[in-house]
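Why do we bother with holo predictions? Because pocket geometry can differ from the apo form. Keep that in mind while you read this record for 3-acetylpyridine adenine dinucleotide.
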Amino acid sequence: MSARLRIGIIGAGMAGLYAAYRLKESGYEVVVFEKNSDVGGTWLQNDYPGLHVDVITRSYEFAEMRSSTWSKRYAPGVEIGAYLKSFARRKGLYPLIRFGSEVAEASWHDGVWQIVTTDGETHVFDVAMVATGFLRVPKMPRIEGMDDFRGTAFHSSRWDHSLSFTGKRVGVIGTGSSGIQIVSELGKRGHDVVHFIRTPQWIQIKENPSISWLEKLLLRIPALAKYWDTRMARLRVKTDGPETWRLEPGPDRDAANQRFLDVLEQEIPDPALRRKLTPAEPLGCKRIPKSPDYYRVLQRPNVQPVFGPLGHIEHDGVVDGTGVKHTLDVIVFATGFDTHAYMRPMRITGANGVTLDELWQGAVFSYRGVGLPQMPNLFLLNGPFAPINSLAIPLCLRDEVGYLLRLLAVIERDRTPIAPTRAATDRFVDTIREKLPQTTYSLCDNWYTDASGTQVIWPFTRAEHGRQYDELNLDDFETFGLPVEALS
Ligand code: N01
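The structure, written out:
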């Protein structure tokens, strides 16, 4: 182990950048591996038309670099991308990052992590930190005939910007946040759009006003910015209800349900269409897409909703489940991500040759979202059971990285690698599994659901997420002895 820990971070998205910044500030030796040519991760790869962040953007910033220049309450994706680049530049992170450097494998040998990139280079670290995210690997469905399609087809996170949509008929498959935003934008631009809706989703209609020049001025003054943020937080509770409605049944959940039904009634005058757009699944079991205008756009003459499962795909279009053919020039697969890939397909091998795939056979899990048994000195950010639905990512990272910094100080002080024990990890996972059935997340299959049928999500409050890290709980960890030569 070197005098100051050498730490290899995998990924330069929001998590990797934030960790790199905090670790660098603490004097650690940091190298970041990033397969893309710039920072941003999800916000670099997703750049479809209409992309906006769906949390109030002032709560989507790092506390260490506040911004007063967002154009809208829910800022366009391009502004988030620019913010992350600016964070990396202003915090001096670019020199730490090896771009175009994809990690193929990481293995624990003789008390260090060996990180091997796809170009065959090997790098050695005391600690590995995996910040690869969970919305990274596109999920493409297998639909009969899809390879015969002669138009242009792509996943929402691989947008073909060379394509002109003028005069083209576009089919969008999927009603998650991506599909809703894409259909709204293309529809508003007047394109001919067919939206394939296999399962209607609950959609929150939220206006997205511009932030005026006066507000931007106020946001430069910390006391006034604090007032603005408090006002927004209150507004959020008013429109979204208290965070606990998802976590336990009761009147708040019933009230939320009624609010959504009222909005459907207001937005969709045609009862037949309203019936088709009213979800059968319980509110909140899937992550709720937000949009100022999706329902209104869907009722425009240039936008056609098609309900039910797809039939098959032919060379010039999609045949729906009732046998009707929809002739198309373009198909956008807004079909989501393999959210449980996490650091895979990287090959990760921990102590005694145990691999990540062996550890996660059947189900993904973690210790407090950040650690794994048998993986000494390997830490995850936004790992399994992180509060990815309820807490804005920067706030989640503040909790996680704060805890990891304290753990790293112990590792450096004692010069001993550590990993959570299997027993402590099982206790943590059991607490989560016990609580999940009360939450809305457990009420349907969604992208949190793993192969064993468990929703991999934080089922407690935001405050409890922070509080779980109050104590280091070193008893939950075991040490991994260094080889004799490393001790000399
Ligand atoms: O993906 P999803 P997403 N035939 O998994 C449908 C974040 N995000 O990319 O419900 C027909 O939610 C599937 O249908 P069904 C956010 O966390 C954030 O939209 O399985 N349809 C579903 O409708 C979000 O939750 C932002 O019946 C098929 C859709 O594809 C997460 O990313 C913006 C199908 C997948 O929905 C993922 O959202 C965008 C098939 N064979 C995303 N296969 C912002 O904050 C799948 N579907 C900006």
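The mean pLDDT is 96.
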